[in-house]
UniProtKB/TrEMBL annotation:
Transmembrane helix is among the record's keywords: no
Compartments, as annotated in UniProt: Cytoplasm
Protein name: Ornithine carbamoyltransferase
GO terms assigned for molecular function: amino acid binding; ornithine carbamoyltransferase activity
């Protein structure tokens, strides 16, 4: 069975830095419009239950730029929509494709697809994790700061799938991470336990706080995500009230390190989790971060498929 990337813990620290190096080399080649054949004769399915702008486009672009072929598999066009078991779909697509990038609602879906297809499955987002996002984000920090080990990333907001993967990837990289969440919106305890176990080996420090100012003090990176994720629209009013005071704005940024950088995995709701002046300001690396979703995807594809 091919090796899949379903969770950040599918990587070792050595794997992570190897992906960073591959992403760096491939980014240079892609920027120079060099012909690449890393994925020559490879056909990769893009199976997305959830709509996407960046994850879909970045992976499709990376596949094509590396010489592979991408097939978009919309759930409405598949028999899954009519109740075909994932094991049946997985077995068949496993015989047609070399790998699948899957963006799904339930994390169990990517686990089952990996089990039954026998091909590499890359988790492009599930309700539990968003590991490719976290890899691309730390690649951006490495590119910007020249290092990641020993730096501190402060995540302000919902302890969601993005937060989960950042906790694990930061721990693998030896990078400290503070998380500031309202009561009731902290990361899952089992994810925190995993991150702390890894951090003990790499020297990273993980802290969960409820005061965003305390979490932001001296931080090298301030990071946020939307307060109301896709599928949570019915909770919008409750969450907006709960997250009042958890906004990345000029005041919070002034508490961080003097040369701190601001990140957001997008889409951004200006005026909610982040202000326009900060996301558009000189300390924002949000657009470099967004571009690196493609280069990080290239590094991940190369690492798992070449």
């Amino acid at each position: 069975m091919a090796r899949s990337f379903l969770t950040a813990t599918d990587l070792s620290s050595e794997d992570l830095f190897a992906i960073f190096e591959r992403a760096r080399i491939l980014k240079e080649s892609i920027k120079e419009r060099k012909t690449l054949d890393v994925l020559r004769n490879r056909v990769i399915g893009i199976l997305f239950e959830k709509p996407s702008t960046r994850t879909r486009t970045s992976f499709e672009s990376a596949i094509l730029r590396l010489g592979g072929a991408a097939i978009y598999l919309a759930p409405n066009d598949l028999q899954i929509k009519r109740g075909e078991p994932i094991e049946d779909t997985g077995r068949m697509l496993g015989s047609y494709l070399d790998a699948v990038v899957a963006r799904v609602y339930d994390h169990q879906t990517v686990q089952d697809f990996s089990r039954y297809s026998g091909i590499a499955v890359i988790n492009g987002l599930s309700n539990l994790e968003h590991p490719t996002q976290a890899v691309c984000d730390l690649f951006t920090i490495l590119e910007t700061k020249g290092e990641v080990k020993g730096l501190t990333l402060t995540y302000i907001g919902d302890g969601n799938n993005v937060c989960h993967s950042l906790l694990l990837i930061c721990a693998l990289a030896g990078m400290n991470m503070n998380v500031a969440c309202p009561v009731g919106y902290s990361p899952r305890p089992d994810i925190l336990d995993e991150a702390n176990e890894i951090a003990e080996k790499t020297g990273a420090k993980i802290e969960v706080l409820d005061d965003p100012k305390e979490a932001a003090e001296g931080a090298d990176i301030l990071y946020t995500d939307v307060w109301v994720s896709m599928g949570e629209e019915g909770e919008e009013e409750t969450k907006l009230n709960a997250f009042e005071g958890y906004q990345i704005n000029a005041d919070l940024l002034s508490i961080a390190s003097k040369d701190a950088r601001v990140m957001h995995c997008l889409p951004a709701h200006r005026g909610q989790e982040i202000t326009s002046d900060v996301i558009e300001g000189p300390q924002s690396i949000v657009w470099q971060q967004a571009e690196n979703k493609m280069h990080g995807a290239a590094g991940i594809l190369d690492y798992f498929l070449s």
